[in-house]
Write a structure and sequence with these properties.
The chain is built from 13 helices and 17 strands. It is an alpha+beta fold. The protein folds into two domains: 263 residues, DD-peptidase/beta-lactamase superfamily (Beta-lactamase); 123 residues, DD-peptidase/beta-lactamase superfamily (Beta-lactamase, 3-Layer(aba) Sandwich). The strands form five sheets. It has an eight-stranded antiparallel sheet with strand order 3-2-1-16-15-14-13-12, sandwiched between helices. A three-stranded mixed sheet has the order 8-7-17, with no helix packed on it.
Length: 411
């Protein structure tokens, strides 16, 4: 297990030490007033950790504090990992970005698109063009999530067992076939909608690699990077380090414990969710972000080519527009003005339009339990915030974290 520690003095890395402490002071209030159970924050520059702190509990009821080796449910911070894994296969010629998904998953061959009506009485039309691999990577596939509660097709996902989880006992192959049987929200490539696209991409990885998704990630990503605590479930000897999962509710003064949902992480799931299934630690995910900062290589191990990663972290939305212009209403606590989307990552095009202190070219993503990370190639920093509060739209943690990190840079 990688050891986390401060590796460089603030001033040496271009930070003001007193200003860095504003991060802790601000988010301490989230714990002290009961909004968050606990958190961990990590800031690094040039690969060296300059700020590392924790506050509060990983298990409030048991009085167990957040520690540096606490295991967190990463939820959608799984997506960049799986997207990168897919592009590793792309580099080997396993597929082209324009390949139709039905070439690998035949159930997608005869898709229909929602036109009008309710979930009980839909009117659909055929796809104009099939879902392609790049649609999955950019969330322009027309797929959705049941938890959106914004469209009749979302209701069909919920009825099929896809809301905050997946149907019991259904594996990835069968689950993706079920998703393929449901209508699309829109013609592929015509809009952006946050969706189960990366789950389908995980199944593509299985088909082209001949390995289950957990095997592929372990052999090709986690073991090479030394990410020993990252997987789709926590083995029994390590379950004492797993943070409890909490949910925000208007009727409670403190977050409510969600054991039924949280305990899913304690055993191997049937459905290996490439869109949200991983658990990890700060040390492990820090190594993933360092590999990204170093253009695909870490400690002599190269996962992906420099040009491929740069291509992934460009805005791939048609016409270079942002998510506010091209996307359906987002499940988030903030707007996405000035934010584009690449192949598995959001990427910041215009910090002025975004109205948050930050850098153009910054890329990253967050998870449903209010986690977030980003990589800033311009300032050479990586930042991570880990907690376990559903949903991520509850508090403006991510925008506040950005302004607090960047105000502390003084070089």
């Amino acid at each position: 297990m990688s050891e986390l520690k401060i590796e460089v003095e603030a001033a040496e890395a271009g930070f003001d030490a007193a200003r860095l402490q504003r991060i802790d002071a601000h988010f301490a209030r989230y714990v002290d007033d009961g909004r968050l159970p606990g958190w961990l924050v990590l800031v690094a520059r040039d690969g060296n950790i300059v700020h590392l702190s924790t506050r509060g509990d990983r298990d409030h009821e048991a009085g167990l504090p957040v520690e540096l080796d606490t295991i967190f449910r990463m939820y959608s911070m799984t997506k960049p990992v799986v997207s990168l894994a897919a592009m590793m296969l792309y580099e080997e010629g396993a597929f082209e970005l324009k390949d139709p998904v039905h070439r690998f998953i035949p159930a997608f061959e005869s898709q229909r698109v929602y036109r009008q009506g309710s979930a009980m009485k839909l009117v659909t039309e055929p796809v104009v063009e099939p879902i392609r691999i790049w649609h999955l990577l950019t969330h322009t596939s027309g797929l959705t999530y049941g938890f959106h509660h914004a469209h009749p097709v979302d209701a069909m996902y919920r009825d099929a067992g896809f809301e905050w989880g997946t149907p019991p006992g259904v594996d990835l192959a069968a689950g993706v076939d079920t998703i393929a049987s449901l209508p699309l929200l829109f013609q592929p490539g015509s809009e952006w909608n946050y969706s189960m696209s990366t789950d389908v991409l995980g199944r593509v990885i299985e088909v082209v690699s001949g390995l289950t998704l957990d095997e592929f990630l372990r052999e090709r990503v986690f073991e090479p990077l030394g990410m020993r605590d990252t997987a789709f479930w926590v083995p029994e000897p390590d379950q004492g380090r797993l943070a409890a999962l909490y949910g925000a509710t208007p009727s409670a003064t403190r977050p409510v414990r969600l054991d039924a949902m949280g305990d899913v992480a304690r055993s191997r799931p049937a459905f290996l969710s490439g869109g949200g299934g991983l658990v990890s630690t700060a040390a492990d995910y820090h190594r993933f972000t360092l590999m990204l900062l170093r253009q695909g290589e870490l400690d002599g191990v190269r996962l992906i080519g420099t040009r491929t990663l740069r291509y992934m972290t460009r805005n791939h939305l048609p016409g270079g527009v942002d998510l506010e212009a091209f996307g359906r209403p987002l499940f988030a606590e903030t707007t996405f003005d000035g934010v584009g989307f690449g192949l598995g990552f959001s990427m910041l095009q215009d910090s002025v339009a975004n109205r948050v202190l930050s850098s153009a070219g910054e890329y990253g993503w967050g998870g449903a339990a209010s986690t977030v990370f980003w990589v800033d190639p311009a300032e050479r920093i990586t930042v991570m915030f880990l907690t376990q509060l559903l949903p991520s739209s509850t508090y403006p943690i991510r925008t506040q974290l950005r302004q607090l990190v960047y105000q502390s840079l003084v070089d």
